[in-house]
Queue: 2 jobs
Job 1
Amino acid sequence: MKFGVIDGNGIGPEQIKATKLVLEATGLPIEWIAIPVAEDAMKKYGHPLPQESVKALKEVKVSIKGPLIVEKLHGRITCVHDDGSEHTYPSINNAIRRELRLFVAPRAIRGFPGISGRHSTMDVIIMRELTEDVYVGWEHQIGDVAAQAIKLTTRTAVTRLSRYSFEYARRNGRKKVTCVHKANALSITDGFFLKCFLEVADNYPDLVVDDYFIDATCFNLVKNPEVFDVIVTSNQYGDILSDLAGGLAGSLGLAPGANIGEDAAVFEATHGAAPDIAGKGIANPVSLILSGAAMLRHVGCDDEARKIEAGTYDVLTAGRLLTPDLGGEATTMQLADAIAREVSR
Ligand code: NAD
């Protein structure tokens, strides 16, 4: 069983070490294939996302990734392909997703009793579109007076995202699928998103379907999180909503995620590289451990995934070994060790 590994930077390498420990505790014969990206790739290939690494990610098909820092104002990155064509992306994280044609980020964010307060029963899956919207990267400066970005919404992308989300809901016993948009203010782009979503929804009469404005979604996620089950939304709204859900659960360190495509998948936490706590050994590893469990489920190892999820739940709700973001004093590896012990037991 081979998985690619991008260590990432900031808290990435600490979270990756913890996640490997827990996944290996399942007893599965896992081989990790290190794939250089960012600083490692600069040293080896002179580019933060060289085609060698893109090819390695495609070849191994399923990978796990630590977060990657993107400098404010200087995130854009150009990838040059073997045929001479090139594409400029808004950030390295966006580039990885789009070079591999990953189109949806399912982020299953839930609360934990004793940790998440009134959000302890929150259980929501945010399906974030990954290929377009304002993150398509078509921005430009107009002299020193203005700057402009294009918001792209295509039928192909919304239909693909919606189908994936409805199929996911059916497969996983979910009852309701909600489209989140702002089709009152953006009646053409978000209006088209909603229209394409509803066309797909017609094929799933067994599921409850509704839609919310993005602002009302934020309010309701805070106030009545139980109204949401599966949320289908565009790239930027999904980006922001997943951090909100992580915060409501108690920490971004509880928010796992994945990036899924037809030919490849990269599993990563919802959050960033947390430079404020990097290198201190105190990052919460749960977000990446649960992303790792989702990765095992993706390759058909449901029992092992369930064991990791149950072990994580037991350790967190016992409340004895919590990292500082959850009010405890445990280190990344102490928490990971405790989960690994539960898994191998
Ligand atoms: P962030 O998500 O890294 O951190 C926000 C806050 O949450 C910080 O206080 C951080 O300490 C905390 N936090 C995040 N993960 C945690 C964990 N596992 N355990 C405990 N605390 C945790 O957001 P930011 O500070 O805005 O971004 C930092 C860098 O990460 C930026 O360069 C940004 O561009 C990048 N980023 C990368 C990704 C990605 O790799 N997919 C996603 C978002 C941001």
Job 2
Amino acid sequence: MNASGAKCMTSEELYNLSNSGAGTLITKSCTISPREGNPSPRYVDLKLGSINSMGLPNLGFDFYLDYVLEQHESGNDDIFFSIAGLTLEENIEMLTRVQNSDFRGIVELNLSCPNIPGKPQTGYDFERTNEVLNKIFYFYTKPLGVKLPPYFDLVHFEMMAEILNQYPVQFVTCINSIGNALYIDDESAVIKPKGGFGGIGGAYVKPTALANVRMFYKLLRKDISIIGCGGVETGKDVFEHILCGASMVQIATQLMKEDTRIFSRLISELEEIMSSKNYKALEDFKGKLIEL
Ligand code: DHB
């Protein structure tokens, strides 16, 4: 599937994703009111990935709720709805409306947007994450997972896993971009917002993404699935995410570079690797990384 943010903001982009070879799709992270986002340039392709500071441009909660309800009416409930309120109250308001709607898909609650000046990433504040999940699971009973930022310290993995294991979280998506990096071309930043600081995706982040998938696969309850995200460019990258424990993968940077044709290419490359190894199903190698 796409990662939230990549080609999933407008009706046309969502239509193209739904008619691609992707297993499913996710909508652009939304806020209650539509947002223009940050000034451009705010997304730049780099040789080994991408940098972005979009600032949550989106068409507003009602637009995406209408879209997923339309999909429900045409029989498609295998769809992910990304929610990214700027406050806990905003998330509660959106999730209350999702709870009370006919939506039968899956919510990905974004705890890791790095691009809003003055708003810390919830996923880096462990106490706050616990409070957010506590308040949300008090009333929200439909399938819900969380999009996490990358962690780099073993104690942080353990702290976050301990919190998540206390709640009926269905999945975690690892990882959002590595936040607040700086890329320079000649003497200049390449994006305008925040003095050039933005989230990095693509090949740069794959080893960090794999480590996050692996650690959460080991530390979380077995009924919490992992969606791998970070640096997927080829079927081999998909294979490695699954080997670390992912059940699915999301694509952002390479989808931006290559468009929706990428999904059928990745599937055939993955199938080729699987048949060369005599694997018939993802379960034959999921989580089975050889540790020396
Ligand atoms: C944006 C970036 C993210 O990484 C995210 O998770 C949500 C929103 C953005 O800048 O639009």
